[in-house]
Amino acid sequence: MKTVKLVISLLPALSAVLAALSGCASVVPPFAQRTPPYIAAAERGTVHRSLVYKTVDDIQLRMHIFLPPDPAPEARRPAIIFFHGGGWYGGSPEQFFPQCRYLARRGMVAVSAEYRIKGRHGTLPPAAMADAFTAIRRLREWADRLWIDPGRIAAGGGSAGGQLAAALAMTTGFDDPEDDLTISAEPQALVLFNPALDVNLLDGLEAFQGRAEEASPIYQVRPGLPPTIIFQGTEDRTVPYQAAAHFTNLMKQAGNDCTLVTFRGLGHGFFNYGEHGNRHFRQTLWATDRFLVEHGFLEGEPLFTPGPGPAPEVGGASDGD
Question: In 40, 85, 133, 237, which residue has its Cα 20 to 30 A from 180's Cα atom?
Answer without folding.
Answer: 85
